[in-house]
Design goal:
The complex is a heterodimer of chains A (about 200) and B (about 70).
Chain A: E1 5-10, E2 17-21, E3 42-48, H1 50-54, H2 59-68, E4 77-82, H3 85-96, E5 99-103, E6 109-111, H4 114-125, H5 129-146, E7 154-159, E8 165-167, E9 174-177, H6 185-195
Parallel strand pairs in A: 2-3, 2-4, 4-5, 5-7, 7-9
Antiparallel strand pairs in A: 1-3, 6-8
Chain B: H1 3-14, H2 36-50, H3 57-61, H4 66-73
Classes of the chains: A alpha/beta (about 200), B mainly alpha (about 70).
């Protein structure tokens, strides 16, 4: 049986750690194309099966408990997250006192172009439109119940042209980057330059 | 580690295959579990078991068969 959350560690000898958290309709493999940027950091890469949680009883409690049970390196660790994964890093930063760099933070955004999103996912992943649409509704509800407070440990990285979300950009610690919901290399470069 | 042991390690840890036919000629594209997540695990396994830290996504893109992975590890 596939566990609900797995993790992979890369660059084990490096002293500073980045915890990477992917979004919905993605896996830990989302970060593969960006690995070169992270060569000076130990990477603790989560793989979260969001689908499973959405359908569990007490899903939030299970998710919180599973997230807190992982053996995160505690020294010099930061979190970088993307899309739905930003909700997870929001939670972890509160509990574990990590700095959280959140790219495309959907929990401070309003969804736009739902149909386009459904069509894109349908085209890219061969998922049925009904399945994507149902999941979207479940996830939106799940999201709203998961978000916690926003404090100075969190900074937001908002794409200049996100095709799926409109962000609340009035919050402190918001930075814009050249890219869209999936092209995030500029955001990562900005974050890594701040993390040095 | 012998070639056979390497093959077994990759089979179980990267591809999580325990019963199917799997040898050096197996094409990666024919393995259900071969995706970007498995590629990350391969990078981690290479580092942990073979002390190789030079594997990245660009190199992996050129792997066609299991033998290509083993050759990289030589």
């Amino acid at each position: 049986m596939i566990p609900n959350i797995e993790y992979t560690i890369i660059n084990k000898s490096k002293p500073d750690t980045i915890i990477l958290i992917h979004g919905l309709y993605a896996s830990s493999g989302y970060w593969l194309e960006y690995l070169k940027l992270f060569k000076n950091y130990k990477l603790f890469i989560l793989n979260i099966n969001y689908d499973k949680y959405i359908h569990l009883d007490n899903s939030l409690d299970r998710l919180r408990s599973d997230l807190l049970s992982l053996p995160y390196p505690r020294n010099n660790s930061i979190i970088i997250s993307h899309s739905l994964g930003t909700v997870i890093s929001n939670f972890l930063s509160q509990k574990l006192e990590f700095l959280s760099f959140e790219i495309c933070p959907v929990y401070i955004a309003k969804r736009i172009n739902s149909e386009m999103f459904i069509n894109d996912i349908n085209g890219n992943m061969k998922k049925s439109k009904t399945s994507v649409k149902n999941k979207l509704t479940s996830v939106d509800n799940f999201l709203l119940s998961m978000r916690t407070t926003i404090d100075s440990k969190i900074s937001f990285y908002i794409p200049k042209s996100d095709q799926y979300f409109n962000y609340d950009n009035s919050l402190l610690n918001s930075y814009f980057f050249l890219g869209d919901h999936y092209k995030i290399s500029e955001a990562l470069k900005i974050i890594l330059s701040k993390a040095k | 580690m012998t070639q056979s042991e390497k093959l077994q390690l990759i089979k179980e840890e990267v591809f999580e295959i325990h019963t199917e036919k799997f040898d050096i000629n197996t094409e990666l594209s024919s393995i259900d579990n071969w995706d970007s997540m498995a590629a990350l695990v391969l990078i981690s396994v290479c580092e942990e078991h073979f002390n190789r830290t030079d594997l990245d996504g660009n190199i992996i893109k050129n792997f066609k068969t299991v033998d290509d992975i083993l050759k990289f590890l030589e």
